[in-house]
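2.7 Reproducibility. Because tokenized structures are sensitive to small changes in the input, we list the exact sequence used for O-antigen ligase family protein, including any N-terminal residues retained from the expression construct. No trimming or masking was applied before prediction.
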Amino acid sequence: MVLVFAIVKNIPFQYHKIDVLVLVYLLYSIISTCINSAYNVQYNQYDVYNYICYLFIYFIVRVLIPNFLSINHALCLLLAIALVICAQFITHKNILIINSGLLAGYLCALIPMSIILFERKKHRQNFIISLGLILLLVAILITDSRTAIITLIGTAFIYFGSKVKSRNRIWFAGLVLILVAGLSVFLYFKRPESFNGRILIWKIAFSIPKGSNFLFGKGIGYVDRQFNKHQENYFATGNRNLSEQQLADDTHAVFNEPLRILIETGLIGLVILTYLLFYVYRTGLIYDDQAQVFLKLSITSILIFGLCSYPFQSYTISSLFYILIAIFAGLNKKDQKVLPFRVGIYVSLFICGGYFLFVVSKTIYATKQWVNAKQLNWQYSEAKAWNIYNNQNNVLRYNGNFLADYGQKLNVSGYHKEAKTVLNSALVQHYSVANLLNAGYNEELMLNFKQAEQFYLNACYTMPKMISPRYYLFNLYVKNGLKKKAIEQALIILNAPIKVPSKEVDEMRNAVAKYLIDNG
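Resulting structure tokens (single pass, no recycling of outputs):
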């Protein structure tokens, strides 16, 4: 629609070097993912769709602002969306961003941008914006995100540091380092386990990019899907540190965006993005007008937040990042060139956009159908539910959550061969303890002892602190008469430290204790 209006009004598209770099980075990420995935590119299709979506969002914003929408109106719209999210979060009805930490990062990015809306002698408008900023700050404090606090302080220091005279910048930098160090120590002692957990994740993550993968990466979305596989290898190869075993969790992020980008898009992708950011920041904060300065600070807050979190794995924050870049590129009139009008280009983009919307709509419809099938009473509507699952499998066959659910349903219903195929695909989409246990249990019911044992062992190595994988392994040994191995697992279960006590854990420990008494 935006392209149609642009054609009708004969609005030329003035492109900037930033536009070219954004296009190159996103297209490179998509192409490298397709090359890395070879014949299994479908496994990455949702990640590819996301990057295509970011591409459309970026260029739609570039055409919209300022041709159809003023910068102030666009910023007001973004701020209004943020206030709705804040209200939902504070009233415990948040549905747009579930993770409170990511919500805090999203709100941190909006605060500098909102300052652009302040205008002299417009007291009512300034009062409303001030109330909005207070609400944003309250929501950030409620999330209790340490990374968000560091982000706010770091962004403020960067802004005020740009105002310090050159001869005093060394002293200012020293003061900042002391304050950051003190704050980091305070926040560490507030929640040391969280900090140590991230150190473990970084230690494992640094071992991933090797060989050709170091240059070209493993494909976008790889960390989310397969990081646990590397965590399993880390503990399976002799790392028996008890404190690290207690820290290991079901991990889908490396909590450091430069490291994630290096893993997924390789050194080439990291260099392209670095060059893009260099071009955004090349004039610093001194020579820009107010709008450019605070847009840069909003982008900066996302980047600082990404040093200890995963904002670019959030669709909301990633979209905001590209929107901010697009608005900034539109403000930067220097070195802009006019893209010659080519009917073929606009028609091609329109066709691609239409097809993309068709595919996304089809996926959304299939997802709704799947959710409805899960809510059916299977005792009375089993045939209807199976019909929905089988029909939507073709559309959702690369959705990890759907595959895990579908495979489990097939397993419970006795379709073990079909379940094996589906559950193996689920492990490709998301290598998790739950999927490993489901796959192992399916093999156990098919009387494939070795395969079941291997899946259970993999689950034990993936999250060593979890009792349930050991309990599955214990039961497998008991059923197959392997008394020595069963006792070995029973002792591990009884002696393992319990991080989060629960009724289920107590029941498992009581069961193995009874077995040891009966077979002592």
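The first helix runs from residue 2 to 8.
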